[in-house]
UniProtKB/TrEMBL annotation:
Bilayer topology term: Multi-pass membrane protein
GO-annotated biological processes: phosphoenolpyruvate-dependent sugar phosphotransferase system
Ranges for domain PTS EIIC type-2: 128-335
PANTHER family: FRUCTOSE-LIKE PERMEASE, FRUCTOSE-LIKE PTS SYSTEM EIIBC COMPONENT-RELATED
Keyword Acyltransferase: no
Organism: Tetragenococcus muriaticus PMC-11-5
Region named Disordered: 100-123
Protein name: PTS system mannose-specific IIBCA component
GO molecular function annotation: carbohydrate:proton symporter activity; kinase activity; protein-N(PI)-phosphohistidine-fructose phosphotransferase system transporter activity; protein-phosphocysteine-sugar phosphotransferase activity
């Protein structure tokens, strides 16, 4: 009877790396004649959950995750815990560690050790990068939904012209395109909102969302256009850290209960909004417009250079923030 190993995979975005690690572990187990069951924690939720029977039968558990995974279920089983990248790159090595009983069984000392390791890990990770990845993970479904609806409308309802495909006004395809554009319009506000949420929890959500909306609106910056993806990142960080700072201010007990739902969101939103409108919004919009114009200028004679830039951004961190910026650039120019 083949030995049985369990695994849990999860990445910050919950799209690419989660399933790549699961697939590589399954392929490695098959090559080693080992039975494996992989529970994935993706953007869709938990899939292929591990049962009590699985846990009793298994030699051990591999956790290849960049997110927090509860270990309460695994009190009498050895665990090897690594980042999701190791699950992708070294699946055979991880399985071998379980078979050779190199994992750690949960106990009081284990819990203490893991608490210290998790604390150290959280402190060593860049909080700005973590916030950005959290924002990106919530932004992706809006980009995918909006982008696909626009693509469907253009592919089926688009009429070829010298300037490319054009959708006739008043048609069903025009309506589908408008729905897609509406979904894409949430991209920057959602990014900013959940970046702020990652930093300050719930009190950061409202100022992040409104800050992102201001960042993505052309109405606030005269003829400079909007601040785009760059402005959304700045708005999310501003909203998050301003809300976090206000949370730490000592207040009378009588108003503590309403601070997160009234005072913190209102004050944070005012500060972020006014900073964008009167101080940094126009310069950031000018910078973003200049960057956009430069990229547009590369579409003609320097299209190879543009392809290299966007291709590098896609490949340098699959599923990460640079990858998503490349998607935003593609959408900006309607490629």
């Amino acid at each position: 009877m083949a030995q049985k190993v369990l695994a849990i995979t999860s990445c910050a975005v919950g799209v690419a790396h989660t399933y790549m690690a699961a697939e590589n572990l399954e392929q490695a187990a098959e090559a080693m004649d080992v039975e494996i069951k992989v529970e994935t924690h993706g953007s869709i939720g938990v899939e292929n959950p591990l049962t009590d029977e699985d846990i009793q039968e298994a030699e051990g558990l591999i956790i290849a995750a960049d997110t927090e995974i509860s270990k309460e279920r695994f009190s009498n089983i050895q665990i090897v815990e690594v980042g999701v990248q190791k699950g992708i790159q070294r699946p055979k090595e991880l399985i071998q560690q379980i078979l050779e009983h190199q994992g750690t069984t949960r106990s009081t000392s284990y819990e203490s050790k893991q608490t210290e390791e998790n604390k150290s890990s959280r402190e060593s990770k860049n909080p700005i990068y973590q916030a950005l990845m959290n924002g990106v993970s919530f932004m992706v479904p809006f980009v995918v939904t909006g982008g696909l609806l626009i693509a469907i409308a253009l592919t089926i309802g688009g009429v070829p012209t010298d300037g490319g495909l054009v959708i006739e006004e008043g048609t069903i395809w025009d309506s589908i395109n408008n729905i897609g554009e509406a979904a894409m319009g949430f991209m920057v506000p959602i990014l900013a909102a959940y970046m702020a949420y990652s930093i300050a929890d719930r009190p950061g959500l409202v100022p992040g969302m409104i800050g992102g909306l201001i960042a993505s609106s052309e109405d606030f910056y005269a003829d400079e256009g909007d601040t785009g993806f760059l402005g959304g990142i700045i708005a999310g960080l501003l909203a998050g850290y301003i809300a976090l700072a206000i949370k730490k201010i000592p207040v009378p007990k009588a108003v503590q209960s309403v601070m997160p739902i009234i005072f913190i969101p209102i004050i944070s939103t005012l500060i972020v909004g006014l900073i964008f409108i009167y101080i940094i919004g126009t310069p950031v919009a000018s910078l973003f417009t200049g960057l956009t114009n430069w990229l547009e200028s590369l579409q003609g004679t320097s299209s190879i250079v543009l392809a290299i830039i966007v291709g590098t951004m896609i490949a340098v961190d699959m599923g990460g923030p640079f990858n998503k910026v490349a998607v935003f650039i593609r959408r900006r120019f309607n490629w």
